[in-house]
Amino acid sequence: MSTANHTAVTEFILLGFPTSWGRQVFLFLVFLLIYILTVTENVIIVFLVFWDYRLHKPMYVFLVNLSIIEIGYISVTLPNLLVNMLSGRKNISYTACISQLYTFTFLGATECFLLAAMAFDRYAAICKALRYQAIMTRSVCARLAVCCWLTGFLTPALPILFLCLQTFCGPNIINHFFCDASPLLRLSCSDTRVKQLVDFLVSMAVLLSSLLVIALSYGRIITTILAIPSTTGRVKAFSTCTSHLTVVFIFYGTMVFMYVRVTSLPSMDMNKVVSVCYSVVIPLFNPMIYSLRNKEVKQALYKVLLRRSRFSVLFRLHTSSSM
User: How far apart are CA 68 and CA 286, in angstroms?
Assistant: First the structure.
């Protein structure tokens, strides 16, 4: 399209969840509660891993990285949404919109690679049990984590570059609660076919490469578990993978549904529902999945709570005796 008679867009309006004021207040309280719970859960996991020496293992180092990603993931979208709901001002500058999209994509790609690294860790723990300590050393674990973050950071570079080459000349209303690629492209007044192809290819590269590592790792894990003679041994070995597998199925299911497609969903309302699932609900439930099914994490939490209760009792006794 010719843009000679149009003014370039300098800011966008995030439509969010348009509804009555009463429902807006209800949604605000729900999202605020989810945000507080998500940040609290993940901060607790980070604290427990650093505090308890028994959790200084590769699996929990990766879990700390995952918790940091979840905090960043939900913090990219929800605070801005909460401010928009409370103030009624839904404007976001072009630069802030692009930055939000870059950060969101970066964290999502990093989580894909991190889940693949965690699958490799489970493979080493089950299939190479006798050599596990030699394989997953601290340096190897640190390098894997850094590699996940670095590769994730570079992933959005090409898609964002092509997005910046798009022309936005109005309208500027984004039918979403954050700056996502699909609703942004709907507003472009230039040809988006190359941009959509780049998004598709990059999404496929990230998802297929990480899924390949996960599939190969669990293929070997299943073969090893089936070779264990006792049923108890097989159940015990597989139980160490159930939390990770649950997170993988939920996360990759929504990612494939949202991003491995050349065109956007027919309904932007459905787009928003699925986006809420992977950007809000998954970060909320991931810590629960890992902590509630993990004895070591629960024991560490119990120790912290027990020590705190003892300290409170001693403090009360000391205060009462000094009065």
Answer: 12
CA distance linking residue 125 with residue 119, whole number of Å: 10
Query: What's the Rg (C-alpha) of the chain?
Result: 23
CA distance 185 to 163: 8
pTM: 0.85
Give the whole-number percent of the chain exceeding pLDDT 90.
33
267 falls in which pLDDT band (50, 70, 90)? Answer: low
Count CB neighbours of 52 within 10 A.
Answer: 17
What are 321's two structure tokens? 């005796």
**CB contact at 8 A, 11 and 3:** no
Nearest by Cα to 160 from 206, 112, 195, 203: 195
Which pairs with CB-CB distance under 8 Å and at least 24 residues apart come from 220-228?
A: 220/123, 220/127, 221/122, 221/123, 221/126, 221/127, 224/126, 224/127, 225/126
pLDDT in tens, 225-245: 888 888 887 887 777 788 888
Residue 270 has which token pair?
């459905």
Is there a contact between 284 and 38 (Cβ–Cβ < 8 Å)? yes
